[in-house]
Amino acid sequence: MAEFDLPLEQLRAYRPDVVEPEDFDASWAATLSAARAHHPLRSVEPVENGLETIRTLDVELAGYAGQPVRAWFSRPAPIPGEAPRAAVVEFLGYGRGRGLPHERITWAAAGYAHLVVDTRGQGGQHGNGGDTPDPSGAGPSAPGFLTRGVLDPEEHYYRRLVTDAARAVDAVRQLPGVDPDRVAVVGNSQGGALALAAAALRPEVSAVLAGVPFLCHPRRALALTDADPWAEVVRYLAVHRDAEEAVLRTLSYVDGVNFARRVRSPAHLSVGLRDTVCPPSTVFAAFNHLGTLAPSPAERTIEVYRYNGHEGGDAVHVRRQLDWLRDRVPPR
């Protein structure tokens, strides 16, 4: 795929007006208030991970409406008397589940306490599966997750998923050996969208790393790409021809641009200029709006991968994330 979006010089200045519901803050405050009526941790159990230097706990946290969400919590084997460590909460890409305990250990190997959060109802498309069902559901939808309950913001699948992400921040702050004042959130694609949302909704977050974030500027994405998951919306609207405004209104409640405006912490994003899943202008829309509604602007950085698509910088970018976060939120 050749570069298909705006030239990079225009992307760096691209800050479009994006529809934001008048009750955006009130709606999310009510949803999180209801979720926080439940203790964030439902259970914590040790698990054998086959590793010598990293210890893992099987965590069940209370997500949307107190519903169970599974997660792996890994950290370097504790040394008696050591100080609490900074934590990294990781959210996963579309179709992935938390997999196996030894699958995602980069952040723990770097010295952080690491919570990798399962994705409700997903885990059947990539990796080694997930363990969290989605007990809610409403209305007809196209195959996939993006259009589940999409006619009503209160019933939308991503309302539940974003709430799970915010509650994961609450949960990690209560896990053993974690410094609750030093929590970063990280994710790529869908996980990047959830990282932006968690950072916006939980001001305790110290830093956000969102690689090629999904769910930004839906109206623009739908006009530019026919790649999944956006194509799910196209297929849905091809059948439900009069539903466009209702669908776009629902998506505005989970638009990464609207969350980005509220992010207070330092932020590190990435973009691939040949990415048809998360078109570059949608990512820059979020990046250029970062912190515009926060009390004071925070540092923001974006890594641009001119010759890459949705894979972005891949392992090269992970190393850049490690270096960036270590300078701002060291593990110890």
From TrEMBL:
It comes from the Bacteria. Residues 119-146 are annotated as: Disordered. GO terms for biological process: polysaccharide metabolic process. This is Acetylxylan esterase. InterPro entries: AB_hydrolase_fold, AXE1_dom, CE7. Residues 121-130 have a biased composition (Gly residues). Substrate binds at residue 94. Residues 135-144 have a biased composition (Low complexity). It comes from Desertihabitans brevis. Gene3D superfamilies: alpha/beta hydrolase (3.40.50.1820). Residues 1-326 form the Acetyl xylan esterase domain. One of its GO terms (molecular function) is carboxylic ester hydrolase activity. The active site is at residues 189, 275, 310.
